[in-house]
Amino acid sequence: MKLATWNVNSIRQREAHVLRYLERAQPDILVLQELKCEEKAFPALPFQAAGYRSEVVGQKSYNGVAVLSRKPVEVTHRALPGLPEDDAQARYIEFVTEGITVAGIYLPNGNSRGADGYAYKLAWMDRLAERASALLTDDTPLAIMGDFNVCPEADDLAPGALRPDDALVRLETRARFRRLIWMGLTDAVRALHPVGAIYTFWDYQGGAWERDLGLRIDHVLLSPDLAQRLVAAAPDRAVRAEDQPSDHVPVLVELR
Question: Fewest beta carbons within 10 Å, which of 26, 54, 80, 231?
Answer without folding.
Answer: 231
